[in-house]
């Protein structure tokens, strides 16, 4: 059985593969700054998506996306701005996306992708 951090990394790989299969270009993974970490930064056409990935083994304790709180969303907005500044990205449509995965580190039980435009 995968450890919690191994399951999370597996989920990020699954999410990246899903995004690429759906036409996205992954620009960055696991980007860190003093404010935290962005799981995935991906581009689709003229928009840049900052993607939070939540992975759980089962839905017993709720859907993985339920773990994304308003506080976490506020931090993601700050991180998106920091990434754009660090990478000199301007005039792009910015989105905060979330991908919730239920799986055991080998097989995917379910995957849900939600998008939300913020600017």
Feature tags:
119 residues; Trna Endonuclease, Chain: A, domain 1; 5-stranded mixed sheet; 2 helices; 29% helix
Helix and strand sequence: HEEEHEE
- Number of helical segments with 4 or more residues: 2
Q: Give me the CATH architecture, please.
A: 3-Layer(aba) Sandwich
Mean pLDDT across all residues, rounded? 91
In which range does the helix fraction lie? 25-40%
Textual characterization of the structure:
The chain has 119 residues and is α+β, with helices and mostly antiparallel strands. Helix content is 29%, strand content 41%. The protein contains 2 helices and 5 strands, in the order αβββαββ. The protein has helices at 4-21, 70-86, and strands at 25-33, 36-44, 47-56, 93-103, 108-117. It has a 5-stranded mixed sheet with strand order 1-2-3-4-5, with helices on both faces. The radius of gyration is 14 Å and the shape is globular. The model has no long low-confidence stretch (mean pLDDT 91).
């Amino acid at each position: 059985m995968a450890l919690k951090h191994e399951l999370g990394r597996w989920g990020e790989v699954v999410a990246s593969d899903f995004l690429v299969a759906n036409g996205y270009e992954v620009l960055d993974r696991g980007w860190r700054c003093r404010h935290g970490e962005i799981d995935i930064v991906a581009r689709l056409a003229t928009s840049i998506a900052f993607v939070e990935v939540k992975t759980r083994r089962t839905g017993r304790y709720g859907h993985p996306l339920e773990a994304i709180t308003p506080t976490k969303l506020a931090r993601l907005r700050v991180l998106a701005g920091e990434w754009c500044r660090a990478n000199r990205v301007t005039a792009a449509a910015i989105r905060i996306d979330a991908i919730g995965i239920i799986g055991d580190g080998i097989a995917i039980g379910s995957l849900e992708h939600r998008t939300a435009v913020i600017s």
